[in-house]
Structure formats: structure tokens, C-alpha cells
Write a structure and sequence with these properties.
The chain has 338 residues and is of the alpha/beta class. The chain is built from 12 helices and 14 strands. α4 packs across α5 and α5 packs across α6. Bound molecules: adenosine-5'-diphosphate.
């Protein structure tokens, strides 16, 4: 943590209750039994920090964002943004939070970048005397000065994302909530946008919560990750801590002698916890909880035939899906216990 937390969430639970039957009939999509969208979530984000919020659909990411923007109240628990309580001070909260939605539907595509920002600035209560300068500064910050007078529909997807980022920054918030900011952008544009977000986070000492389905991006962010599943925190903290507990390296062992890999497979598959990924005459790949040295000990005389060993990091995707399987398994055991 680089300073006192700007966003603080403690044991937050949000249960959506079903509406009365007549209302459900009118709303069509309303639920008919309570949904626990957040279940005991705690986290904190300090100035200059990015917290990536990850999880499958329905994990509770949007609900968490809505709570932090003062758009819905938690059922139990407590959350503050810049010291303001999200349940009681929603107007103050909105002045401190900049939000970037996942799509560009809220942009006026027939209006220019400048006009879009002017409209939003007025809505956010930026004083008229400061508005013009503020817009120019913000456009500069996100690299859109050259497109100041270009209409929204003439911008590329990446530029529209930057315009949305500018809009979120315009009222000088201390917190940014970015809902899949790179969702529709090509990989190079996405990489540049993430770099920009990281730069601004450090420079402006923002506390940033960012959701993404692109796991390689999360891996590259190096900051904290909040991993939610079915409303519960499966992991909160940095990815290295997660890897040090959960990671199982993927080892590829190559042999000099044909057939040696098949013999090694026959030895290794008898060991507990080993998963065989692939095997050929001269190479095999396994995922293993054991250290390399222990594994080679089991190979005994076959070690003399080994020509190389390559250990790869477990892809984040596999790491997270393992975490989900384990946490759902633990949940079932907990439910089944007397
Ligand atoms: P995510 O953003 O991770 O996909 P959400 O926060 O949208 O997850 O949803 C979490 C759970 O809450 C889901 O089961 C979803 O169906 C439910 N949910 C979300 N919003 C509402 C709502 N307004 N009314 C009832 N249930 C909701």
C-alpha cells in the first residue's frame, strides 16, 4: 500500500431481494428468489494503486462497482470512498468517482470530443470558468488533443475509449472505476490504453478499480487482484502471492533416447498429484506439485537419458480456474458438514 486507503470495503454483502409478484410481472426480468451478489467482500485500494477485479459472469463485479459509486446500497457491511460512507453520502461519492462504462453507448457520437466533455463537465458541476481549460488539459492527458473537434462517430474504437477515460477524469476524481476499459479494442490499442491508465494512476495518485476478462492484461498489471466468484472473494492481493501458494509448474522433460519418455510416463503417473499433459517418444509434459529435484529422483536411472528440462509458468487462466474449482469444492463440503 502506497498511502492511506482511498477505497475501503469491509465485509460487504449485497442481497438482491425479489420484487412483489405484480412488479415482477411488469418488469419481466425481475428475480423470484433472493440473489446474494456479494458475500463478505473486503478490500482496500490506496492512492496510485490499480486493483484488477476479475471473475466469471455473475461473480458480482458490477454490483461491487455500483455500491462504490453510491448507486445501490449494501445489505450489510461497510464501504467508504475518500472517507465517505457509500450508503449515506452517495452525492459526495459521485463527486469523487470517475466511471468508464464497458461500451460507448453513453457518448454522443454526432458531437465532437470537446462537446461530449463540455456536456459531461456541466453535469458534473465543473465551474464554467474552468471548464474550457479543464477539457483541453484532459484531452491532452489522454492523447486526444488532435481530435478535439472530431465527431464521436469518426473516432476509432481506441480513441472512443480514450474519450470515455477523459470523461471519467474531467471532474478530477480521486477514484476511477473502469468497467472492461479495453474490452472492444485491438490488443495493441488495449496495451497502450492500459499503459496510459497505469501512468495516470501513478501521476494523479488515483485509486483505480478495473475489471477485465483479458487475463494477460491482469498478469501484466502487477498490482492487486480481487478475484470474485459467486459474490465471494477467492483471492485478494498481489498475483505473486497467489502464484506462490497455488502455482503448479508445467515441466517439459526431453530425453535423448527414443522411448525413454514413455518409460518416464509409466513411473510418473503413479505419483500423487501429477497430471500428464502430453507425451511422445522423446518428451513429456506434466503439471506437478513436486519440486523438479524430487521428480527427477523418481525417474531414477532414466535421469541419465534426460537432455533438457523446461519449467513454464502456469497460465493465469489455468490458475484461476483451479482456484474456482477448489473454492466451489470447499463450499460444497462446508454445506454438507453437519
Ligand atoms: P458480474 O458483473 O460479475 O457479471 P453482477 O454484479 O452483474 O456480476 O451480478 C451478480 C449477481 O447478481 C448475478 O447473479 C446477477 O444475476 C445478480 N444481479 C445483478 N443485478 C441484479 C439486480 N438488479 N436484481 C437482481 N439480481 C441482480
Amino acid at each position: 500500500m502506497t498511502g492511506e486507503a482511498v477505497v475501503q470495503v469491509h465485509d460487504l454483502t449485497k442481497i438482491y431481494e425479489p420484487s412483489p409478484l405484480w412488479m415482477r410481472f411488469l418488469l419481466r426480468s425481475a428475480i423470484d428468489s433472493p440473489v446474494r451478489a456479494l458475500d463478505g467482500v473486503s478490500l482496500s485500494v490506496g492512492p496510485g494503486e490499480v486493483c484488477a477485479v476479475v471473475g466469471p459472469n455473475g461473480a458480482g463485479k458490477s454490483t461491487l462497482f455500483r455500491v462504490l459509486m453510491g448507486l445501490t446500497t449494501p445489505t450489510t457491511g461497510h464501504a467508504t470512498v475518500v472517507g465517505h460512507d457509500v450508503s449515506r453520502e452517495s452525492r459526495r461519492i459521485r463527486a469523487q468517482v470517475g466511471f468508464m462504462p464497458a461500451d460507448d453507448r453513453s457518448l454522443f457520437l454526432r458531437h465532437t470530443c470537446w462537446q461530449n466533455l463540455a456536456f459531461h463537465g456541466k453535469l458534473q458541476g465543473v465551474p464554467a470558468s474552468k471548464l474550457e481549460r479543464r477539457i483541453d488539459e484532459t484531452l491532452e492527458m489522454v492523447g486526444l488533443s488532435h481530435a478535439r473537434d472530431r465527431a464521436g462517430h469518426a473516432l476509432s474504437t481506441g480513441m472512443r475509449a480514450r474519450l470515455q477515460l477523459a470523461r471519467a477524469l474531467l471532474h478530477h476524481p480521486r477514484v476511477l472505476i473502469l468497467d472492461e476499459p479495453t474490452g472492444s479494442i485491438d490488443p495493441i490499442g488495449a496495451h497502450q490504453l492500459l499503459n496510459l491508465i497505469e501512468e495516470l494512476t501513478r501521476e494523479l495518485k488515483l485509486a483505480v478499480l478495473l475489471s477485465s476478462h483479458r487475463l494477460e492484461e491482469i498478469d501484466a498489471l502487477h498490482d492487486n487482484v480481487l478475484f470474485l466468484d459467486l459474490g465471494k472473494v477467492v483471492h485478494w492481493g498481489d498475483l505473486d502471492a497467489l502464484r506462490s501458494v497455488w502455482e503448479q509448474p508445467r515441466l517439459t522433460i526431453e530425453f535423448k533416447r527414443e522411448g525413454a519418455a514413455l518409460e518416464a510416463r509409466d513411473v510418473l503417473i503413479r505419483l500423487p498429484g501429477i497430471e500428464l499433459e502430453s507425451v511422445s517418444d522423446i518428451a513429456l509434459t506434466v503439471v506437478t506439485p513436486d519440486h523438479l529435484g524430487d521428480l527427477l529422483l523418481h525417474l531414477d536411472r532414466l535421469v541419465a537419458d534426460v537432455s533438457s528440462v523446461n519449467a513454464a509458468r502456469m497460465p493465469l487462466r489455468d490458475l484461476l480456474s483451479k482456484l474456482i474449482t477448489d473454492s466451489r469444492g470447499a463450499e460444497r463440503e462446508h454445506d454438507a458438514s453437519p
